[in-house]
Amino acid sequence: MNAANKALVLFSGGQDSTACLAYALDTFDHVETLGFDYGQTHKVELECRAQLRSAIAKIDNWGAKLGDDHTLPLPALAEIGGTALIGDGEIKMQENNLPSTFVPGRNLLFLTYGAALAYRRGLGVLVGGMCETDYSGYPDCRRDTLDALEAAINLGMQSDITIDTPLMHIGKAETWALAQELGGEALVELTLEHSHTCYRGDRENRHAWGYGCGDCPACELRAAGYEKWKSQ
Ligand code: ZN
Prior knowledge:
This protein is of the alpha/beta class. It has helices at 15-27, 44-56, 62-65, 76-80, 106-121, 143-157, 172-194, 217-230, and strands at residues 6-10, 30-37, 66-73, 125-127, 162-164, 206-207, 210-211. The strands form two sheets. The chain has a five-stranded parallel beta sheet with strand order 3-2-1-4-5, sandwiched between helices. The protein has a two-stranded antiparallel sheet with strand order 6-7. Helix 1 links the parallel strand 1 and strand 2. Helix 1 (15-27) crosses helix 7 (172-194), helix 2 (44-56) packs across helix 7 (172-194) and helix 7 (172-194) crosses helix 8 (217-230). The mean pLDDT is 89. Bound molecules: zinc ion (ZN). Zinc ion binds at residues 198-200, 202, 212-213, 216, 218-219.
């Protein structure tokens, strides 16, 4: 099988990476998943991954395409970061217009580790949920950043790996619509039930849009996207 038909999905267990996994299973012949454990405050996101994988494998012929799951520990990020996502800090907007959850260069590291693993596994495509329309404006989610990284990776590894970002230019409402289009009600339902987005790791409070505290920036974004999609 050609490497260009085999993908590695950066799969955190959130709504976006669930849509990316569905996109990859719809598009490629063989799909593996990768999660990072970098001392998140909320290991719950990593724990949701297994439930999502087994549920998504029941849709169409996706189970036959779904390959190995990988988890890489990246504890160095917690040492460097000390921001709200991985420490005790409060989640707020900083003076540079980036939220305090921003871990500098996080996606660059994720994709570089992903590329090294993809190289080893003979997978030609990296799929990630980076998105320019996200409220947060993470500079390492922008497509021009990823084009530069893709070029650097392929020069540095003498490879031909593609970074595929299906959510780059769509908003949260369109991500729900994409889930519906790719996997129907079953995919929408499993995304609602098992995907995790809340920065506070809340799995107690169930809303129409899924589990979460309801007032952290990630919950607000997810809730607004769901409401917008439902009202269309
Ligand atoms: Zn929340």
